[in-house]
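Thread: Newbie trying to understand structure tokens

Hi all, I'm a second-year student working on a class project, and my supervisor (Dr. K.) asked me to get a predicted structure for one chain before our next meeting. I've only ever worked with sequences, so writing a 3D structure as a token string is new to me. If someone could post the tokens and maybe explain what I'm looking at, I'd be very grateful. Here's the chain:
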Amino acid sequence: MRLFSAYLIGLVFGLGIVLAGMANPAKVLNFFDIAGTWDPSLALVMVSALTVTGLGYRFVLRRGAPVLGVAFHLPTSRLIDRPLVAGSALFGLGWGIAGFCPGGALPALGTGRPDVILFVAAMIAGMYAARLWRARTVARRYAPA
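---
Reply by user tm_fold:
Sure, no problem. This is what the structure looks like when written as tokens:
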């Protein structure tokens, strides 16, 4: 049941991204082109998503546990550190250069376009490289002297 619900939620999210036009990199890139063909629709999608999420969290977190789980898995830290800032900056740069974020790229994979496939492959490679880097950093930090 959990796998089915995750699939269904992902499907609804992907359809929302596609219907909002956010799987189209030109639409996303036009949001960043303030002096040219600026398109504010990305901001409207973000505000709508934040509103729904905020209301959803207020409603759902009143429950003792999730419907399909034993406990909520929420962040325990509010620390804004170097890895968080660097990762956010890299995410934003990639989004601004390619016009894709993971939420828009995954549904766009269905188009079979080479630029989408290349972006998703690069994203996966970046995630793997970040895990390797983090593992090596932690191993060096705690290695016996």
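A couple of things are worth pointing out once you decode it. Residues 2-141 form one domain. The radius of gyration is 18 Å. Feel free to ask follow-ups in this thread.
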